[in-house]
Write a structure and sequence with these properties.
This protein has seven helices and no strands. It is mainly α. The termini are far apart. It is rod-shaped and about 120 Å long. Helix 2 runs parallel beside helix 7, helix 4 runs antiparallel to helix 5 and helix 6 runs antiparallel to helix 7.
Length: 233
């Protein structure tokens, strides 16, 4: 393979080099995404369940729990709502939705690089195919079969085949990882929305109880003031 690459025309070597450069960049992006998604997928469900449970029974511990896991997208989303000062349920929901939108670029990071490689690598291979065939047919001389022109035909065909193969292999590899990351992203978005809805529901219930207690205390205070004004107390 290396020997065939070295015998290729300069145009073919440049195209293969560009394709491999794209692959190196994409490989670095894939490695970063693998580390990111391994951390997120392992910790997101556990963290979300613990936050819901703590907020129901021990809300004073929620802030410390979030602080220890602030590197997680879902932790930052929950923090955006829970750090508000006595919000109403609508403000609580909007805070989570706004932070969710802010976290989308983080979760989709380098997706554009992989998509570019998937689309561009076969195109570079196709260009190599065309230039290689042009070189092969340009060197072909019907009256000189087996003569000095054969080397030019062979190098042209080698350029066409190698650039095509490299482009397709690079594109296929990146496509596999891009699809895997997209599926993980969709599952994590569904998880965030599920537990975000549960947290909002718990907050609405707590807010409703607090409002009811405040109304009762307010009515009791009014009744006491009225009795005092009438001289009965």
């Amino acid at each position: 393979m290396l020997d065939a690459f070295l015998k290729m025309p300069l145009s073919g070597q440049v195209l293969v080099g560009l394709t491999l450069l794209l692959f190196v960049i994409s490989t670095a992006c894939i490695a970063e995404r693998i580390r990111f998604w391994m951390r997120v997928t392992q910790r997101h469900p556990v963290f979300a369940k613990e936050i819901i449970k703590l907020y129901q029974h021990q809300p004073e511990l929620v802030a410390e729990k979030i602080k220890r896991n602030i590197d997680l997208p879902i932790a930052r989303i929950f923090a955006a709502a829970l750090e508000l000062d006595n919000p109403n349920p609508e403000e609580f929901r909007l805070a989570m939705e706004s932070e969710l939108q802010a976290e989308i670029p983080t979760m989709k990071r380098f997706g554009g690089v992989l998509e570019l490689t998937v689309g561009l690598a076969p195109m570079l291979g196709l260009i190599g195919t065309i230039t290689g065939l042009i070189a092969a047919f340009g060197s072909l001389n019907i009256g000189d079969i087996g003569g000095t022109k054969t080397a030019g035909v062979s190098s042209g065909i080698s350029e066409a085949l190698i650039t095509t193969a490299v482009g397709l292999v690079v594109a296929a590899t990146c496509l596999v990882f891009a699809t895997i990351f997209r599926n993980i992203y969709n599952r994590q978005m569904a998880l965030i929305q599920e537990y975000g809805g549960q947290l909002e529901l718990v907050y609405r219930r707590r807010s409703g109880r607090d409002n009811s207690q405040s109304m009762i205390m307010s009515e009791l205070s009014d009744a006491i003031r009225q009795l005092a004004a009438k001289g009965k107390l």
